[in-house]
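WARN retry 2 of 3 for item q-0093 after timeout on previous attempt; input resubmitted unchanged.
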Amino acid sequence: MSKEIVAQVLEKAKKQKLTALDEVDSKFILRSFNIPCVQDIEVYNIEQLEDIVQRVGFPLVLKGVGSHITHKSELGLVCTNLNTLEDVKQAFKDINSKRDFGVERIIVESHIKGSREFVAGIFRDPDFGPVVMFGLGGIYTEALEDISLKLCPLTHKDALDLIEEIRAKKLLGDFRGERVVDKKQLVDILIGLSKIALEFEDIKEIDINPLVVTSDGKPIAVDCLIGLDMDKKTRKYPDPVLPSRLEKFFYPNSVVFIGASAKLGKWGHLLPTNVLSGGYKGDVYFVNSKGGKVLGREVYTSVSDLPDNIDLAVVTIPAKFVLDLISELAEKNIRHMLLIASGFGETGDEGKKRQAQLVETAKKYGVVIIGPNTMGLCNPHADFHCIGTLVQPRPGSTAMVSQSGNMGVQLLSFADQQGIGIRGFCGSGNEAMVCIEDYLEAFSKDELTGTVMVYVESVKNGKRFFDVSRKVSKDKPIILLKGGETKAGIKAATTHTGAMASNVRVFNAMCKQAGILKVDAPTDLLDLAASFSSLPLPKGNKVVIITLGGGWGVITADLCAKYGLELAELPKELIEFIDEFLPDFWSRTNPIDLVGKWDIEIPKKILEKVLKWDGCDAVINLGILGRKYFMEKYTSSIERSDPSYTREFLDQVRNMVDKFEQDFIEVTVKMMAEYKKPIFGVRLNTGLDDKTIYEVKGAPYKGVCYNSPEDAVKACARMYEYFMWTHKRGE
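OK item q-0093 returned
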């Protein structure tokens, strides 16, 4: 019944064309969802005050409220801590004299005592919909901006995270003689706000400030403002594309290149060259109105001459000819188009109109389009490399989508150099039909996808993006880099993709809530993809560092503290074990300093003992790999300066160190399989042929070695973050 009354309040406000509700009506709506509010009594004349004072008692608060008043205190319409009848009457007179400020009602409330003030509320993000906010309130709200955000609908776990994520969370505990905050009631308040936002779309925002915590730990809304938007426009979103419709793009049995060319450097030559040289085994056809031959094959002059039922059309002709092409493809039962051509939504208003016509025509004929303005796609598992750069990555478990084609193929190239195997890649282009949300949906169902790597500048349907991401993250980590977060970046993203970037703070909160691992740089994408695709997850944040030099270990220890990892304190038994291999002057603490010992067997023995210990969740080894480059230089110097050593002997020394490094990688991979704990390597030095990932045949994991301690520490910290997110969701 109370919800029906709320609807009546909102309907009345709509008729009056109000943009906000006054405090009385706002609190009524909060109470309808069991959100505790200080009781207010409306005062019509000064004669009522004596009776009210006797019933309520001191101290009191008087307020002048109105639907057009948003900041009462700044207008002198709030009088607090009133302790005598004379003070109350004078406050009434003062507020009553300011009716011209928009005062519609004068209310009396009990003065709620509590030294802790928070703020809670909701607002509607244009991309992601209703968002719940919680943070430090009162006069510090704007000054400190200590708030956290979560998207609706809010789960119990989301509400707890919302509370725990503010910097001032210590105020929620016992504080200066006041009891710990009743978290259950606080959670109920936040979930109540989420329900209001979902049930009443006309409510644009709610601001409870302050949400005062009383001395006995009970949170209560002292002031509230509800903003309205009765004339909101319904936003249209792209229709979802089923994962089954994407299969032909990545597993085509036949491909036709429309706009094929014999001219070097043209897209119509580059793409088929990459496809054919990559070992694609399906049928390949070429279409160009001029005919002739391309790559030694006959060219069809018209789509109508093609065989029926070709799986995929790769289109590189100018934009103005594409619209008419769709019906021709449909007549030949060609229902999948990879549209490389630009000249659509990214070019401005005319291009957007052309793109809209393209989508409507494609829907009419049942054609699915990836692009336009895309660099292409690839699936190494099918030897299908239809991308604008001659990169042919190895098969693997990392799926990759990029809204920037150039960024995507560059990352693809770097991934191949670092040994990261690719499940599939697509440059999504303008996403006229197939959007980032569709790819994520497909990844959630794809058995070969283990890790998802994404570059985004905007999302078409924020709510769907959030929902699908949270579903994917339960089983597969999503590593995301976002472009367009600064003013300059936002401008660039608008001109590049024709889409506005969403609010950065909301986007970051969405990522955290959905379990997305958002990174700050392209190299971080690759570093995390390497770890997630190669190592077991750490099931705790206790790290042991094994280092070839003390200073390096100190730096890594500092980095661990910075990124939320803890150095495990070595037990007596482990120290006594290590004493057998290291000199008396070793540190006997974590980091374990090998004090420059070059005995190649010592690191293996210490590493296994550390992994066996229950107090260790992950190991970072520094300088155990990469010594071969120093040995190369050392033996070369000996060869030039000391004739007593033969080249044959020095070659044996080089080979011995090189073999040790290969053996060490195999040993670490076997240990990870046995103990299910990750080992992160950091090289002493780097060569041109070094990779991040080293495969061991038949092993479930791979060796991972980074160029810097920070890369290793960040990877370990983010893997633990992901483990904790999945673990908490399973509780």
